[in-house]
Amino acid sequence: QVRLMESGGGLVQAGESLRLSCTSSETIFSIADLGWYRQAPGKQRELVSYITIDGSTHYEDSVKGRFTISRDNAKRTVYLQINSLKPEDTAVYYCKLDSYGITYWGQGTQVTVSS
User: Fold this and answer.
1) Residue 80 and residue 19 in contact, taking contact as beta carbons nearer than 8 Å
2) What's the distance, CA 113 to chain centroid?
3) I need a surface site. Which of 2, 45, 101, 107 has the fewest CB within 10 A?
4) Residue 100: DSSP 8-state
5) Left (φ > 0), alpha (ψ -120 to 50) or beta: where does 15 sit?
6) Is-contact 91 82, C-beta < 8 A?
7) Rg over CA atoms, the chain
């Protein structure tokens, strides 16, 4: 069973930055596509960004230019650098690992942005 552990969330003011981390318990990490999702109160979970096994990245339009996803296979960790935070970024952020059709989710980390 793969366990994903997110960290790095918190309460910040608009305009500040955070770096979220998600570490996998298993080495399957290196052969997996990785994604960050978020779920705001009363809303559905939505994709924020993903990074593939070969390092290709994708960002949703709402976060382009402010969010940066990266991965460190040696540390089995995927990062999400979030700059210029806005109140509308407030959500629980989840990481997802996909490998050979199997999906794992982390427990989520709360990001709250005050105006």
Assistant:
1) yes
2) 16
3) 101
4) T
5) left
6) no
7) 13
Residue 83, H or E segment: none
Q: Please count the CA atoms within 13 angstroms of the CA of 57 that sit on its side-chain side.
A: 17
Tokens of 84: 């210029």
Q: Kind and range of the H or E element at 45?
A: none
Residue 27's pLDDT band (boundaries 50, 70, 90)? Answer: confident
Tens digit of each residue's pLDDT (9 = 90 or more) over 76-109: 999 999 999 999 999 999 999 999 889 999 999 9
Closest residue by Cα to residue 106 from 38, 40, 17: 38
Tell how far CA 43 is from the center of its chain: 17
Map residue 87 onto helix, strand or coil. Answer: helix
